[in-house]
Amino acid sequence: MDIISADLIPYQTLYVNIGRWQKQNKRWTDGEFLTLEAENISSELDDLFRETYKSNKQFQTRAKQAAEKAPPKKKGQREKPNVILRMCNTIMEEIKGFRDNVPLIATLCNPGIRPRHWRQMSDICGFDITPDGFTTLRKMQKLDLDQYMDQFESISGAATKEFSLEKALFKMQEEWEPIEFNLVEYRDGICILAATDEIQTMLDDQIVKTQTMRGSPFIKPIESEIKDWEERLIRIQDTLDEWLKVQSQWLYLEPIFSSEDIMAQMPEEGRMFQQVDRNWRDVMGHTKNDPSVSFQFSCML
C-alpha cells in the first residue's frame, strides 16, 4: 500500500499544480485588470514553473526506467508518446508564454497611476485606454499596446516616484496621530508642558524632509499640499517655541502675582497678568482635556 501511495504522489502533485495554474491563468486573464500585482504574479509563475519542471524530471526518470525494463521493440513498432511528459511541457510553455504579460501588468497596474497618467498614455496611442471595473488582461492584450510600452514605462516610472512622495507626505501626517503633549500637574489642577523634546525633534525632522521633497522634480502633482504642510509644520514649531516662552514667564510671574501685597503695589501690572493668566489656564485646560498634538494645533492655527 505504501508503495502504491508513493507511486501516486508525483501524479497528485502534477494534478494539483495543473489545477492551480489553470485557476490562476483564468483569474489573471479574465479578472479585473487593475487588481493584478506584477510582483506576486511573477513570484507565483516562478513557483509553478519550478514545480512543473520537477514533475517533468521525475516522469522523465520513470520513463527512462520503464524503457530499460521493457522488451525490445519489434521492427517497425512505433514508440508510444508519453502523455504525462507532453502535459508537463505544455504547462511549462504556457507559463513561459504568460511571462510576456508581466511587463504590461507591471507598467499599467501601477498603484501610483492617476487619471492624469491615463490621459497621457491615451494621448500617445490615440484612443482611451483608461481601464474600468470590466477591463481584463485579455481586453488589454487586444489593444496591441506593445509599440507604446517604452513611453508607457516612462510615464509609469514617474507615477511611481510621485506616488512615493504622496505616501511620504501621508506617513508624516499619520505620524502625528498618536503623539500627545506630556503634561505634569503644577498646582490647583493646572498642568504645564514637560519633555517636548520628542515633538520638537519630529518637527525638525519633518521640516527637513518636507523641504527635501519640495526639491524633487516629481513633486509637482502635490506641490501645493507639500507647501501647505511645510508652512503648517513651521507654524507649529514657532507656536510651540512661543508657548514654552510664555510658560517660562508664567511660571516665574505666577507666584509673584499670587501675593496680595504685590497686587496692591502693582495694580496695573497685576490686571495685565490676570488677563494672561486666564488665557493661559484656558489653553492648558483644553490641552489637558485632549493632549493630542494634532488636535491642539488644528484648533489653535
Please supply descriptive tags for the structure shown above:
301 residues; mainly alpha; Butyryl-CoA Dehydrogenase, subunit A, domain 3; 2 domains; two-stranded antiparallel ribbon
Summarize the structure.
By secondary structure, the protein is mostly helical.
Outline the structure in words:
This protein is an all-alpha fold and 301 residues long. It has 2 domains: 2-161; 176-300, Dynein motor heavy chain, linker domain, N-terminal subdomain (Butyryl-CoA Dehydrogenase, subunit A, domain 3). It contains 12 helices and 2 strands. Strand 1 and strand 2 (190-193) form a beta hairpin. The relative contact order is 0.07.
Question: What portion of the residues fall into strands of 2 or more residues?
Answer: under 5%
Span of the ends, CA to CA: 79 Å
The total domain count is 2
Overall spatial form: elongated
- Helical segment tally? 12
Q: Helix coverage percent of residues?
A: over 70%
Topology order in helix (H) and strand (E) letters: HHHHHHHEEHHHHH
Describe the main β-sheet briefly: 2 strands, antiparallel
Write the layout of secondary structure elements.
Layout: H1 2-30, H2 38-69, H3 83-98, H4 102-108, H5 115-125, H6 137-141, H7 149-175, E1 183-187, E2 190-193, H8 197-214, H9 223-257, H10 260-265, H11 267-289, H12 293-300
Antiparallel strand pairs: 1-2
Helix pairs in contact: 1-2, 1-3, 2-3, 2-4, 5-7, 8-9, 9-11
